[in-house]
User: Which sequence fits this backbone?
């Protein structure tokens, strides 16, 4: 936002040459394609929208139960339920592009070739940025996620980079030994930015049945419980690469957003908080602006990477 919308500070940021009115972006998966939330407020008040993760073909997702509450967070194994790339491009994207905010098309697929094909289709649209989710299983490599190893992550990004000239953000998994190694690998293959963290792998057990609560056994942990991990990984990655970092993982307040930006993030995605409060992204923008005003900071962009380690 410009000065005077929520306060005195300039909230605008730029990522990969794309201007955002403010740094707050509802994360992929929690906001659908935005239509449900447009009944509550103009989506133009958001910095951007990371659309629901889309695969080449329609997916029905995993069987229920696929969401479970946990202390300070939640587990989910929704399984990328979505209508498929063609349906997204023809039915959802035109409406999203009319909302006067930056649109990130989040996509995933079972192979580099499939993701490259999706990227080529998106390249022919007016979408502002692509966000490649490399947490999908690599069937040819025993089901291990593409983002779990530097070589498979690099191969995925290489294929997608050759298929599009759009700004390419690569969403990284925290379920790795060294996330900086993965970040450097995707940067070397042409990623314009990275976003992190995706969910941490977790499990809960129903004590009565002695079975996992989730039908898929395990799921992705998100919410405030993972925030300290997100801060640590954003800081590590921002010091390992030269490309911008979009931070996420348990952000629930404006101060959380400011903390992630100090750790090195240029913009911030908000996920689980949106599921309990549809107004969370706007509240976080207001709280971030209040933090800037209270501390005499002229612009949100000034926060990025200012944390001073001991």
Assistant:
């Amino acid at each position: 936002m410009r000065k005077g919308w929520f306060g005195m500070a300039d909230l605008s940021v730029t990522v990969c040459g794309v201007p955002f009115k403010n740094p707050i972006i509802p994360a992929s998966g929690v906001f659908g394609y935005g239509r449900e939330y447009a009944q509550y407020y103009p989506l133009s008040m958001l910095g951007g929208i990371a659309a629901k993760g889309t695969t080449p073909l329609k997916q029905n997702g995993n069987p229920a139960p696929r969401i479970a509450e946990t202390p300070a967070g939640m587990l989910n194994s929704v399984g990328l339920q979505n209508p498929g790339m063609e349906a997204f491009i023809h039915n959802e994207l035109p409406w999203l592009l009319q909302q006067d905010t930056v649109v990130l098309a989040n996509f995933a697929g079972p192979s580099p070739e499939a993701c490259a094909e999706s990227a080529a289709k998106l390249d022919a649209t007016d979408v502002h940025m692509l966000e490649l989710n490399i947490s999908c299983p690599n069937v040819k490599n025993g089901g291990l996620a593409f983002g779990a190893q530097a070589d498979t992550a690099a191969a995925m990004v290489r294929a997608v980079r050759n298929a599009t000239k759009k700004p390419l953000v690569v969403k990284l998994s925290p379920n790795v030994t060294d996330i900086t190694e993965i970040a450097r690998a995707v940067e070397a293959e042409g990623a314009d930015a990275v976003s992190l963290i995706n969910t941490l792998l977790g499990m809960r057990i129903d004590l009565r049945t002695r079975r996992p609560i989730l039908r898929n056994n395990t799921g992705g942990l998100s919410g405030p419980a993972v925030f300290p991990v997100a801060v640590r990984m954003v800081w590590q990655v921002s010091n390992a690469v030269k490309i911008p970092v979009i931070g996420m993982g348990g952000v629930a307040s404006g101060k959380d957003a400011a903390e992630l930006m100090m750790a090195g993030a240029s913009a911030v995605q908000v996920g689980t908080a949106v599921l309990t409060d549809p107004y969370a992204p706007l509240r976080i923008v207001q709280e971030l602006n209040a933090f800037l005003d209270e501390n005499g900071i002229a612009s949100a962009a000034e926060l990025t990477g200012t944390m001073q380690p001991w």
Summary: The chain has one domain: 13-303.
